[in-house]
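Weekly structure sync, notes
Attendees: PL (lead), two postdocs, one rotation student
Agenda item 3: pending single-chain targets
PL asked that the sequence for the first pending target be pasted directly into the notes so everyone works from the same version. It is reproduced below exactly as submitted, 139 residues in total.
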Amino acid sequence: NGVRTLALRAMAAAHALTLALALAAVERNPEFAGTAPARTPLRLDSKDVSFALRFILTEVKRLTSDYRYTRIVRCHGAESAPGTMGGRNLFVDVEFDMLKNQRSRHAVVVFLDEAEEVMGMSIDAFPEVTFREMPDPPV
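Predicted structure, written out during the meeting:
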């Protein structure tokens, strides 16, 4: 009973830490030197944000089969700015549920060319997901 209580407490602490990390705001890169183009806030219900979120979810799921159950929980904010090589960039602060309430919050940039076609995207870090491990078979 003591071992089970300890295990439950450890799981609760891990869940609380995961939730705290997911709720932390995405910050700008402190190592960036230079002047970034001014960003324009976008309405979360705009066509640009809906398009960006669909694209982001599709591309994240394509990265690896580990992300196949990913879904978007919330978009915390979105901005637009001119691209450095023409076109424009959509900056999206998005929160994923990787699998069974494993939350992960990320800054994602979607790159658009002058014709508003997607050139690619960048994500601040690869989301982590933990799957249930099968016990070793008896030998």
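Discussion points:
- Strands lie at 40-41, 71-82, 88-97, 103-112, 118-123.
- The longest strand covers residues 71-82.
Action: rotation student to compare against the earlier draft before next sync.
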